């Protein structure tokens, strides 16, 4: 099968540091190549892939200091359009830009939505372009816009050996990802202090969250149990996650997926999480972690974390969240789309239902 993957240009594929979407695209692209498919990746020039790379920016735009990505994105979509007849499927990971440009090719396009869908910002696009097929990364993610043209839910997966199983665990709690109000690092800090267990925070601070970090979080870091590490690379994740007693995921928002949960599970590290968004789809309560609804419950879960089988946590990961499984799910979807494919009428003849 000839498949094009169109990545955002904020980060390289894979990203140098933070970048969950680009990381998933990389894992999926490599897994599809391993399955024998002819894959082309449209991404920044510093991307690394076994697929055919079409460079669309000199490097990832975030680390290059470029704030507005619109011009680069539109130029990339023009490149994709010029070679569209080469592909059986064009798989977008770029949210909305492609909808008006590729409307006439909707029969061979699919878009994975990687972000939250509960805000009203993007809802008009689904009504305006109802023919564009969509993939959700959890059933919870699609619930606020259930009327949209979702053709599948495909949970993320990562390579089995990327974060090796660590049978021993460690004596600290881990928080990894992004410092922001919805991720609730303040909850993680309070849990660690009340449980009397060290907390290591490996997280980036986006510009938009800098004030929140300085005013709300930095004052909480001056405590002997709290160690703020900052943003870490992929190479540092196995030791960081594998050495933890548990991962804290104390979110306060409808999480679309939560990649860090399956990264921890790959290491055999159980997850202690609030039940927002995708969490009940990812965590088997009592097997791969504990779902809680209060600080008190989380502190109790910390003390019981060592009683969960790390081997059992790893088995949950292997059963449901590998990149190979993700790739097989997408291939099945591609084949279904191709089997039912028919060119769309000219855009001026499309009448929303």
From TrEMBL:
One protein family per Pfam: Glycos_transf_1
Domain Glycosyltransferase subfamily 4-like N-terminal: start-end pairs: 18-118
Domain Glycosyl transferase family residues, every copy: 168-295
Gene3D superfamilies registered for this protein in UniProt: Glycogen Phosphorylase B
InterPro entries named in the record: Glyco_trans_1, Glyco_trans_4-like_N
SUPFAM superfamilies named in the record: UDP-Glycosyltransferase/glycogen phosphorylase (SSF53756)
Alphabetized GO MF terms: glycosyltransferase activity
Transmembrane segments: none
Keywords assigned: Transferase
The protein, known as: Glycosyl transferase
Organism name: Allosphingosinicella humi
């Amino acid at each position: 099968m000839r498949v094009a993957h169109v990545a955002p240009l904020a980060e390289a594929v894979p990203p140098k540091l933070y970048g969950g979407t680009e990381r998933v695209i990389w894992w999926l692209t490599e897994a599809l190549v391993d399955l024998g498919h002819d894959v082309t990746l449209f991404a920044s020039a510093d991307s690394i892939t076994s697929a055919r790379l079409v460079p669309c920016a000199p490097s990832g735009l975030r680390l290059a200091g470029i704030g507005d990505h619109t011009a680069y994105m539109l130029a990339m979509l023009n490149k994709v359009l010029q070679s569209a007849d080469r592909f059986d499927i064009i798989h977008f990971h770029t949210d909305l830009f492609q909808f008006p440009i590729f409307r006439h090719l909707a029969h061979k396009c699919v878009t994975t939505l990687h972000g939250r869908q509960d805000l009203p910002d993007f809802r008009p696009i689904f009504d305006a372009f109802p023919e564009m097929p969509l993939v959700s990364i959890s059933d919870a993610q699609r619930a606020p816009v259930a009327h949209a043209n979702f053709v599948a839910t495909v949970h993320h997966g990562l390579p089995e050996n990327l974060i090796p199983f660590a049978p021993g665990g460690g004596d600290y709690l881990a928080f990894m990802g992004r410092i922001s109000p919805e991720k609730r690092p303040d909850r993680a800090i309070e849990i660690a202090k009340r449980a009397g267990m060290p907390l290591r925070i490996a997280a980036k601070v986006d510009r938009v969250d800098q004030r929140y970090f300085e005013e709300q979080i930095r004052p909480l870091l001056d405590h002997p149990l709290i160690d703020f590490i900052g943003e870490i690379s992929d190479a540092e994740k196995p030791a960081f996650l594998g050495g933890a007693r548990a991962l804290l995921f104390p979110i306060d928002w409808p999480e679309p997926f939560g990649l860090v949960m399956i990264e921890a599970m790959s290491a055999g590290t159980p997850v202690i999480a609030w039940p927002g968004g995708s969490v009940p789809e990812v965590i088997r309560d009592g097997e791969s972690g504990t779902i809680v609804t209060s600080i008190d419950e989380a502190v109790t879960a910390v003390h019981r974390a060592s009683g969960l089988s790390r081997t059992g946590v790893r088995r949950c990961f292997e059963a449901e969240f590998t990149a190979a499984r993700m790739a097989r799910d997408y291939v099945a979807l591609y084949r279904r789309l191709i089997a039912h494919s028919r060119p769309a009428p000219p855009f001026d003849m499309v009448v929303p239902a």
